[in-house]
Amino acid sequence: MSTAIAMAAPAVILGGLLLWLINWYFHEQKSGGSAIQKKSRVSSLPPVPEVPGLPVIGNALQLREGRPHMTFAKLAKKYGPIFSIRVGSKPIVVVNSEDIAKEAMVTRFSSITRKNLSKNLSRAAFDRKMVALCDYGDFHKTAKRHMTHNVVGPNAQKQHRVHRDTLIDDVAKDFHTHVKNHGLQPVNFRDIYSSDIFGLALKEAIGRDVEYIDVEELGRLSRPEILKTLLTDPVEIALQYITLGDYFPFLKWIPQRNFERKIEKMYSRRLAVMKALIKEQTERAASGEEMNNCYLKYLLAEGKTLTEKEITSLVWEVIIESSDTTMITTEWALFELARNQKIQESLYEEIRSICGSDKITEENLCQLPFLDAVFHETLRKYPALPMVPLRYWEKPEEWNPERFLDDKKEYAPNDLYKTMAFGAGKRLCAGALQGVVVGSTTIGRLVQEFEWRLEGREAKDVDIVGIATQKLRPMHAVIRPRNL
């Protein structure tokens, strides 16, 4: 008897919960829906088309493939350039045209005062104490000014030029080393590039690269372990896990202990590593060693206006934003070039016609419109964070850099609104300029020095991870040095 009751108990609980959800849904419908819906009915604005969804969960099942920007592009064919969906209790307005997005984010609502973040994303973002994800206000304006002045602004970029040149040389050298040691065996692009660009991020953030760090709580961590703790784990937590209560408030009471433990473990490990990195640099400075020009040096000088937590989160933000998104875009660009040999050769010929036997440099970028088109076409199809869906391009699923060379619509090389991949208005990504420069120069240099090819099924491997468009499996390409 007791066994039967024990086996039946879960069914009774689930059945009761289901009845409660159904009752809640029809009560909402009868009472006229949410406050947001009621407000929209009295608005003088024309109604936004709504994509029909299911009771309680809304349009959640339509997003189950994990590629929302692709799903939105398909829905746009039926519902137009702007429509709304609902995920659980959250209404979401989707804009599918960069012209409309630019109007919304630049012309009308440039500040976008508040960002509603899920619990996991908020925790991954140091509880929103970073430029990209904090609410618009005094802290955002102050922190963005610090970042622009010391990391990503024009003057700061001039000071960090030597680090970027070193990065490009090191990347090319590492690929030549692979060919020397392994011949025509496929190379894992991500293994090499992510490590090198991580070094650039560390130099800009704390003044130097590191091979290991001694962390009081964790012991000695190697460079790959540092990279995983600071970059890989937070991104995975932020993008691949969902907190039910964020979308279904009536389910907040259900514990997600395993998930919460993962969040806190990630948070504590990252915090411990960041504190160790900062402590090591401050101790070097205290001993009389000159601290190289870096973001940390400036923030410490601003210690009276910033808390320890704010300094830690702002330094971490520079590390992740200077490395992760650039790596994603560069890998996809070389993947597409490797499986589109004619486009790759067109790019190579453009570079050769401008640079000759000299190595491509940042000064050459303004003379290479096809390279610029390759970079922005990659951003269009594989935005690092697909916030704006594929717009009404001709054949939007096709990777075609020529679309950015269309005589009917001119695209200036420095137009960061081409694809809206960097955001817009006062929320424009502070590191957009560096992302374009580093990504474009890397692509140009690697095509200038190597012929890239894919073998077997690699050319069809376009799977992505989470809601980000990072390639699920690292690209393995066969590279052959060119005769320059």
From TrEMBL:
One of its GO terms (molecular function) is oxidoreductase activity, acting on paired donors, with incorporation or reduction of molecular oxygen, NAD(P)H as one donor, and incorporation of one atom of oxygen. SUPFAM superfamilies: Cytochrome P450 (SSF48264). Belongs to the cytochrome P450 family. This is Cytochrome P450. It comes from the Eukaryota. It is a single-pass membrane protein. Gene3D superfamilies: Cytochrome P450 (1.10.630.10). The keyword Metal-binding applies. Its cofactor is heme. It is found in: Membrane. The keyword S-adenosyl-L-methionine does not apply. Heme binds at residue 429. One of its GO terms (cellular component) is endoplasmic reticulum. The chain crosses the membrane at residues 6-26. Keywords: Heme, Iron, Membrane, Metal-binding, Monooxygenase, Oxidoreductase, Transmembrane, Transmembrane helix. Pfam families: p450. GO terms for biological process: ent-kaurene oxidation to kaurenoic acid; gibberellin biosynthetic process.
